[in-house]
Write a structure and sequence with these properties.
The protein has about 220 residues and is α/β, with parallel strands linked by helices. Helices cover about 35% and strands about 20% of the residues. β7 (about 170-175), α8 and β8 form a beta-alpha-beta unit. The longest helix has 19 residues, at about 205-220. The structure holds D-xylitol-5-phosphate (DX5) and zinc ion (ZN).
Length: about 220
């Protein structure tokens, strides 16, 4: 499974998304951080903005919902026709039921866990998901440093995914950059969110390519 790079537009210019999307056209998907100011202490944008984003890019949208009451709030995003909708396990009463509803609406279903949340519940039902997101920082803000201990959870998830032969993708998000993406990949991640590492680059296409090469090198070690 080759590495996918998903730039996070949390580090983009919020009043110039169309221009900034054009600079990351070589990405595999665009990572869209929806924050509600409750689940995380930061507020970004909601459904109307995501709907508009769909219209200005051909790239798949990878929606990362950092919002409370996911069981009620997540489905409208899936119904927009985005590629994937990832909700937080901490914000859902029934992660399997919600994943099934997201899939029934036509989107891939992802489940995310914060650094302090154990993976047991998620690993017990891997076939219900298309993606597992292991947060490598506390969600809420871009530009933080990767928390090294979270890579052990990545390895734990990768081991179980391999054991059951699941096709679920294993995403990491937070603090991913040129210095650590190869290591994250070697721990078993295959899908990499990078916000500041991509948007701080003068040549973003080149940065995406550098990240992809390093990630694929790390994946080689993981296999
Ligand atoms: C953090 C968000 C991330 C963030 C990543 O809560 O979920 O997607 O934008 O940004 P960097 O790569 O700068 O840590
Ligand atoms: Zn994110």
């Amino acid at each position: 499974m080759s590495a996918h790079i998903h730039p996070s537009i949390l580090s983009a210019d919020f009043v110039n998304f169309e221009r900034d999307f054009a600079t990351i056209s070589t990405a595999d998907s665009i990572h869209v951080d929806v924050m509600d100011g409750h689940f995380v202490p930061n507020l970004t944008f909601g459904l109307p903005m995501v709907r508009r984003m769909q219209e200005i890019t051909k790239l798949p949208l990878d929606i990362h919902l950092m919002i409370d009451r996911a069981d009620e709030q997540a489905l409208p995003y899936a119904e927009l026709g985005v590629d994937s909708v990832t909700f937080h396990a901490e914000a859902s009463e029934d992660i399997i039921k919600l994943a099934r509803r997201i899939r029934a609406a036509g989107a891939k279903a992802g489940v995310a866990v914060k650094p302090g949340t154990p993976l047991d519940e998620v690993l017990g039902s891997l076939n219900e998901f298309d993606m597992v997101l292991v947060m490598t920082v506390e969600p809420g803000f871009g530009g933080q440093s990767l928390i090294e201990s979270t890579l052990e959870k990545v390895a734990q998830a990768a081991k179980e995914i391999t054991r059951i032969g699941s096709a679920v993708r294993l995403q990491v998000d937070g603090g991913i950059d040129l210095t650590n993406i190869e290591r994250a990949a070697a721990h078993g991640a295959d899908t990499f969110v990078a916000g500041s590492a991509v948007f701080s680059a003068v040549d973003r296409a080149q940065r995406i390519q550098e990240l992809r090469l390093l990630a694929n090198r790390g994946r080689h070690q993981a296999e």
